[in-house]
């Protein structure tokens, strides 16, 4: 069932292209907004308009949004390399391999953590949307390392709150190009979808508050190994903040990394690993902490830089 919206253009979007204004107002990608306009689903002051038309603050928009595609329901599917680090009746902590998402999503046909756990007989809580039951935080498909999944409803609600209130200790290691200056610091810059609508995120005025602390562990000729502590957990946060500092994660072509350096080090994805995860156990109250070694591809890249 389609969703009809009728509202004025906010004054803050005065002068923006129609497709850009729609993308900001409804959380769409720029390309999806352009499709809606081309399909005749957008009227400005009662008349059809082109995607490149500039909007006027207060102009009346009538938009017909199609129903969102329903996300696939998780089914048991073995995931090679998915390692259970810890499990009890409330939580399961996994070490996620490369090429695996947290839960099934529209358009993703690869493996997911939830489906891998179901295949190995781990029952997760039914709390949350059907496709992401038990998921309290996520890692990008090509980011490896530690994730906690809730098995009980109480664990789900307590952990969701802990992540929201920033009481979870999340440490990552990342190999970035060049040498950050200063060697240790905090990046406090808001993040939102990139205006291009191509799936990237970016530092954007008015975006969601995002805070990343970093410290240089080791400096090489062309790159630096950083310890990163996340205060917030925005999509692509470390990748976006490092790129904004002009020190993208090695291998992160989406955010401007040098393909030559990645090829020389044998890296085919962003060098980013969730190395440590600590939190108060949701039912026992005691602090728990888990660590994960680097996967082989990341370890080899660092060993090569040390040799150089």
TrEMBL record:
Entries under PROSITE patterns matching the protein: PSI_RLU (PS01129), S4 (PS50889)
EC code(s) of this entry: 5.4.99.-
Pfam families associated with the record: PseudoU_synth_2, S4
The keyword Isomerase appears for this protein: yes
Reaction catalysis annotation: a uridine in RNA = a pseudouridine in RNA
Domain RNA-binding S4: 16-74
Enzyme class: isomerase
GO biological process terms on file: enzyme-directed rRNA pseudouridine synthesis
Annotated keywords: Isomerase, RNA-binding
One function term, GO molecular function aspect: RNA binding
Gene3D superfamilies hit by this protein: Pseudouridine synthase, RNA-binding S4 domain
Function recorded in the entry: Responsible for synthesis of pseudouridine from uracil.
Family per record: Belongs to the pseudouridine synthase RluA family.
Name the record gives this protein: Pseudouridine synthase
Originating organism: Marinitenerispora sediminis
């Amino acid at each position: 069932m389609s969703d009809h919206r009728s509202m004025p253009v906010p004054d803050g979007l005065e002068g923006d292209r129609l497709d850009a204004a729609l993308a900001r107002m409804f959380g769409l990608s720029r390309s999806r907004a352009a499709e809606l306009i081309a399909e005749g689903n957008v009227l400005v002051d009662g008349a059809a308009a082109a995607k490149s038309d500039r909007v006027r603050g207060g102009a009346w928009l009538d938009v017909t949004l199609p129903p969102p595609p329903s996300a696939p329901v998780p089914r048991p599917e073995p995931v090679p390399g998915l390692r259970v680090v810890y499990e009890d009746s409330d939580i399961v902590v996994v070490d996620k391999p490369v090429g695996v998402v947290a839960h099934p999503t529209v358009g993703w046909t690869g493996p997911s953590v939830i489906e891998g756990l179901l295949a190995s007989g781990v029952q997760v809580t039914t709390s949350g949307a059907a496709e992401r039951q038990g998921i309290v935080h996520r890692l990008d498909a090509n980011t490896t390392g530690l994730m906690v999944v809730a098995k009980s409803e109480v664990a789900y609600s307590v952990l969701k709150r802990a992540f929201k209130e920033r009481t979870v200790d999340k440490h990552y290691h990342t190999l970035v190009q060049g040498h950050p200056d200063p060697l240790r610091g905090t990046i406090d810059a808001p993040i939102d979808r990139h205006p291009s609508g191509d799936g990237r995120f970016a530092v954007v005025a008015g975006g969601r508050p995002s805070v990343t602390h970093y410290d240089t562990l080791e400096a090489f000729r062309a790159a630096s190994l950083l310890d990163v502590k996340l205060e917030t957990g925005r999509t692509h946060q470390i990748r976006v903040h490092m790129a904004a500092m002009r020190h993208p994660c090695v291998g992160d072509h989406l955010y401007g990394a040098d393909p030559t350096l990645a090829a020389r080090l044998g890296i085919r994805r962003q060098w980013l690993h969730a190395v440590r995860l600590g939190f108060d156990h949701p039912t026992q109250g005691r602090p728990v902490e888990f660590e994960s070694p680097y996967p082989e591809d990341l370890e080899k890249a660092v060993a090569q830089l040390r040799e150089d």
